[in-house]
């Protein structure tokens, strides 16, 4: 229950008595989250507002607060006191693993740690109000604690074939980038507005025999059609890149990508993701090995009705076949996260399906938004429909 407002280091703060269900010894300033899935989902369970646990990937949006000084040293399970987040914010000590700068460094609740992380490592919950380096020896810093802003998290939506995936976007401070572009940059398009369908006016469109992009006027919400445009011969179609929508992996940089797409024929050739500038990402039925890329594809050698993933640094590539099933004319969300130059995570409908960790295969050059839609064998047009796409890069702004 709430203990109301008390004085702490000259600050009027709000506290709450909660029950810590873990077994670790707690330290002042540790971050904890509510156990929101406690018990049976269909039952009223009052302890969901009292039981707290270590932050994890599934509970970050249920941030509860930080351990108050009088509960420091307690070992769970135990009742403890928390400083709780307030809309107006309150200045308290937060345990962190970051080197922070007063009134500048954004702090986040991160999975698998009691310490506040930095931008791109979790959901924003505060801002440093002290300049101190805790990156070598973790410890406390004075900070404003203001809690989770629902507009900053995708977790208000369920993972699936319609919504942005929480496991990707909960670690990206999407709204915060608008307020402080030095954090990074982002791109979103739901194709509701004008769509440039000509080469050299944004998109670079390269047709093999025939191919084009166009808006779809028959679907609500706006859809981009990437289409072989009448050609029904093997390997014919279109290669599309938005070359000014660029990201670049580097140490300390996090890149996120996700698109909601469908294919009229899941056995055709396609690519959805990020790639270096290349007018033949799939040539003669084979995904190329000349530019850096990270994405999803299907080419001539692929299993019918399956999606494969690829991460590549020029010719050094890591291809994982059949990471998920795919069905004709059925929307699916395809997303990925590039963590520095150490790993690439691939998500289908919000579920992690593959992780590439071989450093030599992780892209480290400039890449742009890329789509390919080409015929495999013969038949009707190859049509890739894109409902929406989101891209963000945290860090690395020149």
Would you write up a description of this structure?
3% of the residues lie in helices and 45% in strands. The protein is an all-beta fold. It folds into 2 domains: 2-148, Virus Head Decoration Protein, Chain: A; 156-394, Jelly Rolls. The strands form 6 sheets. Strands 14, 16, 17, 19, 26, 27, 28 and 30 form an 8-stranded antiparallel β-sheet that branches. Strand 27 and strand 28 (351-356) form a beta hairpin. The chain is elongated and about 75 Å long. The model has no long low-confidence stretch (mean pLDDT 89).
CATH architecture of the largest domain, by name, is Sandwich
Largest sheet: 8 strands, antiparallel
CATH class of the largest domain: Mainly Beta
Output the structural class. mainly beta
Percent of residues in β-strands: over 45%
Helix content: under 10%
* Overall number of strands: 30
Q: What is the count of DSSP helices, taking H or I runs of 4+ residues?
A: 2
Outline: elongated
Report low-confidence residues grouped into runs of 5 or more. Answer: none
Number of domains: 2
Q: At the third CATH level, what is the topology name of the largest domain?
A: Jelly Rolls
């Amino acid at each position: 229950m709430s203990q109301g407002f008390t004085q702490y280091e000259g600050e009027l703060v709000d506290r709450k008595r909660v029950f810590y269900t873990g077994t670790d010894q707690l330290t002042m300033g540790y971050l904890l989250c509510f156990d929101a899935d406690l018990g049976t989902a269909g039952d009223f369970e009052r302890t969901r507002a009292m039981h707290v646990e270590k932050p994890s990937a599934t509970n970050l949006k249920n941030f509860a607060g930080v351990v108050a000084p009088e509960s420091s040293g307690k070992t769970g399970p135990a009742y403890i006191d928390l400083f709780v987040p307030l809309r107006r914010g309150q200045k308290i000590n937060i345990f962190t693993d970051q080197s922070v700068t007063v009134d500048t460094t954004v702090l986040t609740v991160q999975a698998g740690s009691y310490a506040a992380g930095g931008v791109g490592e979790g959901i924003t919950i505060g801002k440093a109000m002290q300049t101190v380096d805790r990156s070598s020896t973790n410890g406390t810093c004075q900070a404003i604690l203001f809690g989770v802003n629902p507009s900053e998290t995708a977790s208000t939506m369920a993972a699936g074939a319609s919504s942005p995936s929480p496991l990707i976007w909960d670690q990206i401070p999407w709204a915060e980038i608008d307020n402080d572009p030095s954090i990074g940059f982002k791109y979103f398009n739901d194709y509701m507005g004008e769509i440039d369908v000509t080469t050299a006016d944004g998109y670079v469109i390269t047709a093999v025999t025939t191919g084009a992009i166009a808006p779809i006027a028959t679907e609500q919400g706006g859809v981009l059609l990437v289409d072989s445009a009448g050609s029904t011969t093997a390997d014919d179609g279109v290669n599309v890149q938005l070359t000014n929508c660029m990201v670049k992996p580097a140490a300390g940089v996090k890149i996120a990508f996700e698109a909601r797409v469908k294919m009229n024929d899941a056995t055709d050739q396609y690519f959805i993701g990020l790639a270096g500038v290349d007018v033949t990402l799939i040539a003669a039925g084979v995904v190329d090995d000349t530019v850096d890329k990270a994405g999803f594809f299907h080419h001539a050698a692929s299993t019918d009705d399956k999606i494969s993933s690829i991460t590549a640094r020029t010719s050094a590539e890591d291809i994982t076949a059949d990471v998920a099933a795919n069905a004709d004319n059925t929307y699916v969300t395809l997303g990925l996260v590039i963590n520095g130059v150490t790993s690439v995570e691939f998500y289908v409908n919000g579920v992690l399906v593959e992780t590439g960790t071989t450093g030599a295969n992780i892209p480290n050059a400039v890449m742009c938004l890329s789509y390919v839609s080409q015929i495999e064998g013969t038949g009707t047009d190859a049509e890739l429909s894109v409902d929406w796409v989101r891209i963000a890069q945290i860090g690395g702004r020149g």
